[in-house]
Amino acid sequence: MTSIYSNQKSKTLSTFGKYSMFPESLIRHALVAVVNNLEDAHEQIDTAISTAIKESKPVYISISCNLPSIPHPTFSRHPVPFFLSPRLSNQMNLEVAVEAAVAFLNKAVKPVLVGGPKMRVSKACKAFVELADACGCPVAVMPSAKGLVPEHHSRFIGTSVGYSLLIRKEKAIIVQPERVVIGHGPAFGCVLMKDFLHALATRLKKNTAAYENFRRICVPPGEPLSSEPGEPLRVNILFKHIQAMLSGNTAIIAETGDSWFNCQKLKLPEGCGYEFQMQYGSIGWAVGATLGYAQAAKDKRVIACIGDGSFQVTAQEVSTMLRWGQNTIIFLINNGGYTIEVEIHDGPYNVIKNWNYTGLVEAFHNGEGASATQQRFVTVRTEEELKEALKAALGPKKDCLCFIEVIVHKDNTSRELLEWGSRVSAANSRPPNPQ
Fold first, then answer.
1. Same domain (yes/no): 56, 120
2. How far is CA 139 from CA 65, 120, 135, 158, in A?
3. Which of 14, 105, 107, 403 falls between 20 and 30 A from 52, CA-CA?
4. Contact at 8 Å (CB) between 135 and 173?
């Protein structure tokens, strides 16, 4: 992602810094190019864009608003060709790392592969699947890597959520984008993840012991209890219907909160997209993420699961979704507050002012763009009403944004959230470390 901002007018270099729109923390952790003169504009912009491509990380370019209209001699010529040198593994380190890993894993009784989120920036997802095919091990993913490994893989066993995966370092091989650490050591640098996984797949002996053991003890999750006619809608019934909506033409966006845990339990069909933001737990992230994903991935219909507390932080972005004619389906899960915070530390500050959410989206629509009916912006309280709303959302007219407010009980949470919340609460309430 490259974000380009038009900043205030260019001043002298010495005074420009104090007017910077970028916080100090951002400048420390991401590349920020501040263009306030034309002489080095080419160099700064090229460097920023090439860094984004090479590192698969965001960069930020700030351009003073009075510069674009000013002619400059260098702009009359073709720009100097810019080449990106490919990243390469150190072949000697790669060979030694693979040899050490093979010796380590061939002694293991029941090895398991666990995929993490850095496979994406390392462009190593294909190599990971190649290794999984070759080694016979069961395959799991960390929560932040859900969607990076095909869940239809024959040995996919699910997601390690919360505190259920406590890796003992001495029994693990940790593969970073450019580094491999085996147990407590040795470590091998200048080894690209995708090269290491690809080479390991050609050398490793097949070992299906862990997967066979998993097959013996695994009890698949059951279906939720059926609803009685007119019964208040339960979250597990909602996600049962969301599961049925998924295909290779859809993508799931999960907001911080109970949607974290409920969406983790969805089974993703081949090609189904999945995004959620685990690292910082930023409440309100999903609304903007839904807007951006839907704008970029025109081949998929986005399904967003967002709590009412989170929605109130960034609700205005729905206006932009309507402006651009996006056909997203938003499930606004209204349980009257910040439920995830209640499970960590309860208090009156977790109860929020209830909004007329469907009325707000109607106001954003304001009679412009694709026509909106009552069934497009609708509140549901029972499974029967949910079915009617989904019938309209998935019907022949799929060119409109659909906003479905789902009213559920304030205590209707997943078992995983209750367990996670109690653990975080205990950690937060421990005495401070002695000085």
1. no
2. 51, 16, 10, 8
3. 14
4. no
DSSP letter, residue 314: H
CA atoms of 219 and 227, how far apart (whole Å): 23
If asked whether residues 304 and 366 sit together in one domain, one would say yes
**∠ CA(348), CA(354), CA(356), 5° rounding?**
175
Higher local confidence (pLDDT), 397 or 248: 248
Q: Is 115 helix (H, G, I), strand (E, B) or coil?
A: strand
Residues 6 or more apart whose Cβ sits within 8 Å of residue 122 = 56, 177, 192, 193, 194
Tell me, yes or no, whether 178 and 38 share the same domain: no
How would residue 71 be classed by pLDDT, with cut points 50, 70 and 90?
confident
pLDDT average, residue stretch 403-426? 83
Residue with tokens 């960590």: 344
Q: Do 274 and 185 sit in the same domain of this protein?
A: no
User: Tokens 């007018």 appear where?
Assistant: 9
- Give me 152's structure tokens: 């239809």
- In the chain, the number of structural domains is 3
**Residue 24: how many other CB atoms lie within 10 Å:** 8
**Can you give the pTM of this predicted structure?**
0.84
Of the candidate ranges 89-103, 168-182, 266-280, 371-385, the one whose mean pLDDT is the lowest: 371-385
The CA-based diameter of the chain, rounded to the nearest angstrom, is 75
- With bands split at pLDDT 50, 70 and 90, how would you rate the model's confidence at 347? confident
Q: Over the chain, what is the mean pLDDT?
A: 86
Confidence of residue 257 (pLDDT cuts 50, 70, 90): confident
More confidently predicted of 30 and 150: 150
What's the pLDDT score for residue 75? 66
Classified as helix, coil or strand, 140 is: strand
How far are the Cα atoms of 16, 17, 50, 314 from residue 22, in angstroms, in the given order? 12, 10, 20, 20
Question: What CA–CA distance (Å, rounded) separates 35 from 306?
Answer: 37
Residue type, 120: R
Q: Read off the DSSP letter of residue 119.
A: H
Contacting residues for 383 by C-beta, under 8 A, at least 6 apart: 227, 231, 233, 237, 241
